[in-house]
# Entry
Amino acid sequence: SDVYKRQVIGNHDSLLIKRSKLGNIPDEWMKPIDEIYGLDGIDFQEEYIIDDVLLIHGEAAGGKSGWQDMCRKTGLSTVFGHYHSIGGIRYHQMRDQRTLFSMCVGCGIDVKKYAFEYAKGSPDLPVIGAGIIYGPNRAYFEPFDWTDRKNTRRN
# Structure
């Protein structure tokens, strides 16, 4: 299915685009994100709506607790992962009788990589997990078992 060939553009991805524009680099000189990452055939977009669920990166959520009310702001159940140290779901019963959810899926990063040096002083470790969407009004978040946390420690 083509749904598995989609990727939401994150704020780190969009830095490439923003910096090229600030540097007056013509768009035609820039490679598409799928080529930069070697992911030919993956459709990168700012957002997707699939089965009445909005998938976004989430940097505009409005702070670390903003994720909890995203579905109320968008009018759709909303999934995002901008906040590396948060994972979970919050449900809302809307006035029109719909049940919506906001889900933050954490991330899938390795904090030992150079790209995440900027967060080295943070007291928060990443929440590594996965979100499962059953439909526009039901989802599940599964945090990964960290019995052995060696891949998330900053040593």
